[in-house]
Amino acid sequence: MHRFFVPPDWLHGSTVVLHDDVAYQLRNVLRMRPGAEVIVLDNQGWEYVVELDDVTNKLVRGTIKHKRPAGGEPGIHVTLYQCLLKKDNFEWVLQKCTEIGVGEFAPVMSARTVVRSDSVSDNKRQRWERIITEAAEQSRRGALPDIAEPLSFEQAVHDAALCDLALIPWEQEQGRTLRQVLSEVRGAQPTGQIKSVAILIGPEGGFESSEITLAQQHAVVPVSLGPRILRAETAAAAASLLVLYELDSLG
């Protein structure tokens, strides 16, 4: 059954009136007719099974048949502090890490970041939000990940330190692997104790050693992802997947 996130004010009692891109998708792309059923999500923890009543050029309207808690969300909130990447790579991170279960994205400006924060226009943010929404719908998420305004690296490590666990994969780390750190956390913490995890991923050129030092001063733990050097976008997906698998079994 097709799923669509909608603003809560599109829901009126037992009726849903669908507008804009959602209505176009139902009417012109999926070519749905009265009697078809879809799921709409209010991004506030609920999903609704809706039977379409009217599908016209003016509106798409349906009746709510069932209301139930939305599923698909992990029990751990992962914030991915991703240094800005070239267009396609950053958008790939948004798409795949939304599917994996990341709860929030924070674009970061580090010393080696090539893409500048002033390139993040309103149109680009709207495109990012569409990518996140489509990925969340496809992967049966129950909530849309947030995306913050671009941060400096200094602000990112400060914010990351507020999480229960903060990690920074780094290709020069020789001492501790991500697997070891997560195993230690699982062994030391009672079940369910870790509720929030921050992951900091570098740009195409990686982090500078001075940035790792600063991260450590904020209790952000450097970890290795293994003997192979991963692209930034691959590292983002791999680290997010491993954290959620080890600490939350992917929900």
Distance between the termini: 21 Å
Number of strands: 13
The largest pleated sheet is described as: 7 strands, parallel
Q: How many helices?
A: 7
Structural class by SSE content: alpha/beta
CATH homologous superfamily placement of the largest domain = SPOUT methyltransferase, trefoil knot domain
CATH architecture of the largest domain: 3-Layer(aba) Sandwich
Unreliable residue runs: none
Question: What's the level 1 CATH class of the largest domain?
Answer: Alpha Beta
Give the domain tally.
Answer: 2
Rg to the nearest angstrom? 20 Å
| Beta fraction | 25-35%
Mean pLDDT value: 91
Q: Quick summary of this structure?
A:
The protein is α/β, with parallel strands linked by helices.
How would the blueprint of this fold be written?
Elements: E1 3-5, E2 11-12, E3 15-18, H1 20-29, E4 37-41, E5 46-55, E6 60-69, E7 77-83, H2 87-100, E8 104-109, H3 122-138, E9 146-147, E10 151-152, H4 153-160, E11 165-169, H5 178-188, E12 196-201, H6 209-217, E13 221-223, H7 232-248
Parallel strand pairs: 1-4, 7-8, 7-12, 8-9, 8-10, 11-12, 11-13
Antiparallel strand pairs: 2-3, 3-6, 4-5, 5-6
Helix pairs in contact: 2-3, 2-7, 5-7
